[in-house]
Amino acid sequence: MEQKLRGLLNNLYPVDIIKVESVTNEMYLCKTEQGDYYARVTNYKSEEEQVEEVQYTNFLYEEGFGVAPTISSFNGKAVEKITLDDDVLTVLYRSAPGVHLQRNEWNASVLKELGRQIGKLHRLSKKFEEMHPVTYIKDWHENEEYAFLDYVPKEETAIRWIAQDILSAIRKLPRNHIDFGLLHGDLCLENALFDRESNVTMIDFQDCEKHYYIYDLAVPIYSALEYSFVGGGNIVEYGRDITKAILDGYQEENDLSEEMVDQLPLFLKLKEVFEYSLMHMYWDKEMLTENQIRLMNNFRVRIERNHSLLNADC
Fold it and tell me: CA-to-CA distance for 125 and 209, rounded, in angstroms?
């Protein structure tokens, strides 16, 4: 598989790939004498969506934002069709600078800088949409991953009601160019790289979508609470501290109304139910590991109790 992919990529792109290594089912590390590249190989989104996504990220790169640029093929395309076991689409990226931070390195100053960069991202997203009206990238609720009632088991009636209430409440929120637009969509901490000067590079825009901008803040806050809290303190106070840091950083670059900040707990719940639904969507129920069972049970209890990640009294 890797050898075949290497030959196809070398025939398509102005690079001389020496070795291809699988990183995930869809991402491959491509080593050359000039440096590393990454090839994304997937049909997760349509060709039209991927082309529009790449136009977006290349625009961000040209505006000086921290993203990995794509490499155009000999045909002048950023998205190419190739045939492995099946016909798939591939995009070749330059390796992004920076590293993933360890859990204990996600302090308030780092998260403030992440928030600032998210604010810059949204400010540039508005500029992109003014210049290139988005046609193929979907509104959030049109994506299959938000079809919670298709995946949460019917017997889990309490969670299904909660999921329905969350979706209904968000769909009723007013949409305008200040609060709603094109965003990353999956800004978990793993999708942000930092170099020694604390410059941020965002990776994996595959889930970019049109959504309320506050969601791009809810995801890293949720991710930090799930991943970076190392104990030794009060998790509620920790949650409030990192939320303040991210919001303070964000508002240095982009406006965010108090009304939308007040909706942050709602979008944190959306993210939590989203993750729980994905477990049912993608995991093999007949082959669950002990860790998957434990995680699924933890999510179910937490959602049913309507526990708030930011407020111990809820």
Answer: 11
Token duo for residue 291: 């860790």
User: What are 159-181's pLDDT values in tens digits?
Assistant: 999 999 999 999 999 999 999 99
The answer to whether 13 touches 71, Cβ cutoff 8 Å, is: yes
Cβ atoms of 44 and 106 closer than 8 Å:
no
- The span from the CA of 226 to the CA of 229, in Å, is 7
Comparing 39 with 2, the larger pLDDT belongs to 39
Token pair 């803040």 is at which residue?
217
- In 3D, which of 218, 229, 211 has the Cα closest to residue 187? 218
Instruction: Report d(CA 69, CA 60) in Å as an integer.
Output: 9
Residue 44 near residue 21, CB atoms below 8 Å: no
Residue type, 152: V
Q: What is the pLDDT of residues 236-282, one digit of tens each?
A: 788 889 999 999 999 999 999 999 999 999 999 999 999 999 999 99
Helix 290-304, helix 264-282: angle, nearest 10? 140
What token pair was written down for 7? Answer: 């030959």
Write out the DSSP string of 235-301. Answer: HHHHHHHHHHHHHHHHTTTS---HHHHTTHHHHHHHHHHHHHHHHHHHS-GGG--HHHHHHHHHHHH
For residue 194, list its beta bridge partners: 99, 200
pTM, two decimals, is 0.93
| Strand stretches in the chain, DSSP E | 19-22, 27-32, 35-42, 80-83, 87-94, 180-183, 192-194, 200-202, 209-212
Q: Please list, in sequence order, all residues whose beta carbon lies within 8 angstroms of the beta carbon of residue 196, skipping any fewer than 6 positions away.
A: none
Report the amino acid identity of residue 274.
Answer: F
Cα separation, 13 vs 306, in Å, equals 51
